Amino acid sequence: FSNKTPHHYIRTFQYNLLKKVLKNFMDDDLCYGEIKRHTLILDQINEFIDIYKNRAKNLFSVLHYSENSHDFGSRVHLSEENIIDFLLKNLKNGRFQNTAIFLSSD
């Protein structure tokens, strides 16, 4: 533990967010302040790509985000447009060249 936590490490954020969600579960608006939580995750992916695109030949990341779909199928639509925008923007600017993207849900 002598090295600093990587910039893209999201565990601390998730832990603090979980405390907020559990405290206000019935009134949860899926936002962190005024920002949709799933957009924070997508921003984190963009940061990861920006930081490491010139440092490593191959990048690998696993992200599991099920908050909008797990146990509440009626909330999936809240993230669809942002995910589509994220994918299209990154495809157009060439950030996903030689990339495999796997999307799944429960």
What does this protein structure show overall?
With 106 residues, the chain is mainly alpha-helical. 42% of the residues lie in helices and 4% in strands. The protein is built from three helices and two strands, in the order αββαα. It has helices at 11-23, 37-52, 77-92, and strands spanning 31-32, 35-36. A two-stranded antiparallel sheet has the order 1-2. The radius of gyration is 15 Å and the shape is globular. The model has no long low-confidence stretch (mean pLDDT 76).
Average pLDDT number:
76
Number of helices: 3
- The chain-level structural class is mainly alpha
- The percentage helix is 40-55%
List keywords for this structure.
106 residues, mainly alpha, two-stranded antiparallel ribbon
Brief characterization of the structure:
This protein has 3 helices and 2 strands, in the order αββαα. The protein is mainly alpha-helical and 106 residues long.
Helices, strands, pairings?
Elements: H1 11-23, E1 31-32, E2 35-36, H2 37-52, H3 77-92
Antiparallel strand pairs: 1-2
